[in-house]
Amino acid sequence: MKTLIMMVGLPRSGKTTLARQQYIAYPRVNPDAIRLAIHGQPFIAEAEPFVWAIAHAMVDALFLAGHDHVVLDACNNTRKRRDEWKRGAWDRRVFETVVATEDECIARCHSPQLEEVIHRMAEAHEPVTVGEIGEKENLHASCISFTTGLAVGVSNCSGDGHTACLKCTWYNRGEKGTGDDL
Prior knowledge:
This protein is of the alpha/beta class. The protein has 6 helices and 8 strands, in the order βαβααβαβααββββ. The protein has one domain (3-178): Rossmann fold (3-Layer(aba) Sandwich). A 6-stranded mixed sheet has the order 2-3-1-4-5-6. Strands 7-8 form a two-stranded antiparallel ribbon. Helix 2 crosses helix 3 (48-64). 34% of the residues are buried.
């Protein structure tokens, strides 16, 4: 089953760290990297439609090239943004929510401009709801250790009502544990 793994969380929450650790075998599409590649800056408002068009094309192309899993390493902070990814060359979505407070994210950044972005996005944040999760979709909530940078647990896989997702690869105190393949 072709699966789009959507990272969800504030900037500097640890989404990329988790994606690199947990989904190492899967190709990752990152709009931040696209921005740097096309205009060399973290953000230019006028270029955003182009950035997201490239991201959509890259995700589709990776599935069409034969990959079964693709990671969308973006904030996906609002339902509107997540709804843009309801349909494509994949069969289901998995929402990998990285839980970090606004204060933790701000402590990890080194830019007053990014602090403003984090604050604005924290105010606009809309958690993934059960109503968003389709029949073939799952929600994973991971907490990133502020000191180690490792995911310290996976909980509340609410897509199917289980309290813990057995289809996750998880990290606990630096030890990797695995369940069924996504």
